């Protein structure tokens, strides 16, 4: 990969020039284990691990697990799997913020001793009123004047479990008149009598994110703490804690989060889709999660490539899904073997082909990769073609098969349709054709031409399979935008999953394994499902179509 430039790399280059941090570069990826990782996290992962790699530095994987109520071991395990799958290595630096709970407590006591933190007994509602408005300063809490000794005692008793949830909090003593709300004596510890996935019932007070996060970075001696733009307003607080505790001070740097069109990225909302059964799970191939993309057939390298291409900026924007699809399409064009498969089969009987005969015809595995070689595809008297490759009464621009017209069967022969067989309702049951034995391999010795080449599968040799086709999960570019406060689920696309149960696949696919990707000629890139697929009942997903169709989808969304 070519070397990237961006404003974060500029900052690091400067720091290295100035010998800051003894020339160290140490980053971290700090997920909260309250859901599965999504493509937005991939951006942050590739950024943080990528910086460490390019600057010969280190990157930690750290679980920011300071909130006991929403976090679970299932999420921890999935995050470890996903980061590793994306190709990154944290060596022995896997950390849990919860392992620092004793240290956080110690630092909170230090603030108290310095007169920089106090125990406050206001109710949550009173605290809100005291905080003031954007245009108005707040009011000091009546408990702000407590002595250090009194605060130490109360804080210890909070820890000992003497008080109920919400009865008291520990707050930083900063400035109730600050134009920055985050600086108006923020809460740094709360009482929460709740079991933690790692520390069990040892603690009944838990630190707030802003207090814990800068300490985690400092404890691990992170040099560049990269986070998303929402935390810009929190940076003064990040700096305040570290300055007042006089401990190692990483630099917080904010970048724009990834937003993808027709996609939601909030873990809370993704969880809702899972819990309410709108999708089959976190790894549903329509989900923007890493596990969903993996199951859909995205490779780690295509996701890394995407993250590199979108770059890093200081302003928010929405990226078109065609960028993501483009990265996998481009890769699979070089790596995916071609096969012929029919999704909506229409039977064709070739009347002048001998009954009981079959033959093997040579087909190219990948025209982009000569080393991929050739394979032999069976041909026989009865084959399937795609239903929409035939029209009985074709309009002017339809060049594929129709009565009395000759077309090429790829790698096989020229065939001409002689008769359309229908049932009593007029539905087409099958086509009768004749073939020209002189055109074996797909070329006529007399040089005559045909206007269309169709893919096909020999009926007797075909594998019966289920193929799942996907559209975007949402109908709107910004799914969160709803009329009159409706839930975002009103924007779900009812057609996001289409299951085709009667597909006919080329027999060479009988050795296909979970996760493997193929190009079904003329139809797109497909992948063997990793969950439901068996040799007896094959299941394939369409990863992407062969061409970008997003311009059309976007226009349709606009007219809605
Ligand atoms: P969500 O809104 O999905 O719950 P989060 O920010 O709460 O995301 P965390 O687990 O705290 O999730 O995120 C871990 C890291 O990933 C953070 O450093 C965060 O900034 C980054 N991150 C999360 N979402 C995105 C995104 N869409 N684009 C880039 N980075 C992201
Ligand atoms: Mg978060």
Structural account:
- The protein is of the alpha/beta class and 560 residues long.
- Helix content is 26%, strand content 23%.
- It has 13 helices and 27 strands.
- The strands form 7 sheets. A 7-stranded mixed β-sheet has the order 12-25-26-27-23-24-13.
- The longest helix has 16 residues.
- The chain starts with 6 loop residues before the first helix and ends with a helix.
Give the number of DSSP strands.
Answer: 27
Structural Rg: 31 Å
Structural class based on helices, strands and sheet pairing? alpha/beta
Q: What portion of residues is helical?
A: 25-40%
Present as ligands are: adenosine-5'-triphosphate, magnesium ion
Q: So what's the overall shape?
A: elongated
Instruction: Please summarize the sheet with the most strands.
Output: 7 strands, mixed
Can you identify the CATH superfamily of the largest domain? HUPs
CATH architecture descriptor name of the largest domain: 3-Layer(aba) Sandwich
What is the CATH top level name of the largest domain? Alpha Beta
Placed side by side, the strands forming the largest sheet appear as 12-25-26-27-23-24-13
| Spatial separation of the terminal alpha carbons | 41 Å
Number of helices: 13
CATH topology of the largest domain: Rossmann fold
Which stretches of 5+ consecutive residues score pLDDT under 50?
none
Strand content: 15-25%
Average pLDDT, rounded to a whole number, is: 96
Number of domains: 3
Write a compact overview of the structure shown.
The chain is α/β, with parallel strands linked by helices. The protein has 13 helices and 27 strands. The chain folds into 3 domains: 7-255, 3-Layer(aba) Sandwich (Rossmann fold), CATH 3.40.50; 267-337 and 465-559, Beta Barrel (Ribosomal Protein L25, Chain P), CATH 2.40.240.10; 341-455, Ribosomal Protein L25, Chain P (Beta Barrel).
């Amino acid at each position: 990969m070519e070397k990237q430039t961006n404003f974060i790399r500029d900052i690091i280059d400067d720091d290295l020039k100035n010998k800051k941090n003894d020339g160290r570069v140490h980053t971290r990826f700090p997920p909260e284990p309250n859901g599965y990782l999504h493509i937005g996290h991939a951006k942050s992962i590739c950024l943080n691990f990528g910086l460490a790699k390019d600057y010969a530095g280190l990157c930690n994987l750290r679980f920011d697990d300071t909130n006991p109520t929403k976090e679970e071991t299932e999420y921890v395990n999935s995050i470890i799997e996903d980061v590793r799958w994306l190709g990154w290595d944290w060596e022995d630096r896997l950390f849990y913020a919860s392992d620092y709970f004793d240290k956080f407590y110690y630092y909170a006591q230090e603030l108290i001793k310095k007169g920089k933190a106090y125990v406050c007994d206001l109710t949550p509602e009173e605290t809100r009123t005291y905080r003031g408005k954007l245009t108005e300063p707040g009011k000091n809490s009546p408990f702000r004047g407590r002595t250090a000794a009194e605060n130490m005692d109360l804080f210890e008793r909070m820890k000992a479990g003497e008080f109920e949830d919400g009865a008291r909090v520990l707050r930083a003593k900063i400035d109730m008149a600050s134009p920055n709300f985050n600086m108006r004596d923020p809460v740094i510890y709360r009482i929460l009598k709740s079991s933690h996935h790692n520390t069990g019932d040892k603690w009944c007070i838990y630190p707030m994110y802003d207090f814990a996060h800068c300490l985690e970075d400092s404890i691990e001696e992170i040099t560049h703490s990269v986070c998303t733009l929402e935390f810009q307003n929190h940076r003064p607080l990040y700096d305040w804690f570290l300055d007042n505790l006089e401990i190692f001070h990483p630099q917080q740097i904010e970048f724009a989060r990834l937003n993808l069109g027709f996609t939601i990225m909030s873990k809370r909302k993704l969880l809702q889709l899972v819990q309410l059964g709108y999708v089959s799970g976190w790894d549903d191939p329509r989900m923007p999660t890493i596990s969903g993309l993996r199951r859909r057939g995205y490779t780690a390298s295509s996701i890394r490539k995407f993250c590199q291409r979108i770059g890093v900026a200081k302003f928010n924007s929405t990226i078109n899904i065609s960028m993501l699809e483009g990265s996998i399409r481009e890769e699979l064009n070089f790596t995916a073997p071609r096969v012929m498969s029919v999704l909506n089969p229409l039977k064709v009987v070739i009347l002048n082909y001998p009954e009981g005969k079959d033959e093997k015809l040579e087909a190219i595995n990948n025209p982009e990769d000569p080393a991929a070689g050739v394979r032999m595809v069976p041909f026989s008297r009865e084959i399937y073609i795609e239903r929409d490759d035939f029209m009985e009464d074709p309009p002017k621009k339809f060049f594929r098969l129709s009565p009395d017209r000759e077309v090429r069967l790829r790698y096989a022969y020229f065939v001409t349709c002689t008769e359309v067989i229908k049932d009593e309702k007029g539905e087409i049951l099958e086509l009768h054709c004749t073939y020209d034995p002189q055109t074996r391999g797909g070329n006529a010795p007399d040089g005559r031409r045909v206007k269309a080449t169709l893919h096909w599968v020999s009926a007797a040799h075909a594998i019966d399979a289920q193929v799942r086709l996907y559209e975007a999960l949402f109908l709107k570019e910004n799914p969160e935008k709803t009329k009159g406060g409706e839930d975002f689920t009103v924007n779900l696309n009812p057609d996001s999953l289409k299951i085709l149960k009667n597909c006919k696949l080329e027999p060479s696919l009988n050795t296909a394994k979970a996760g493997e990707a193929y190009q079904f000629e003329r139809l797109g890139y497909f992948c063997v499902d990793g969950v439901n697929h068996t040799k007896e009942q094959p299941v394939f997903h369409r990863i992407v179509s062969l061409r970008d169709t997003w311009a059309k989808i976007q226009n349709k969304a606009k007219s809605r």
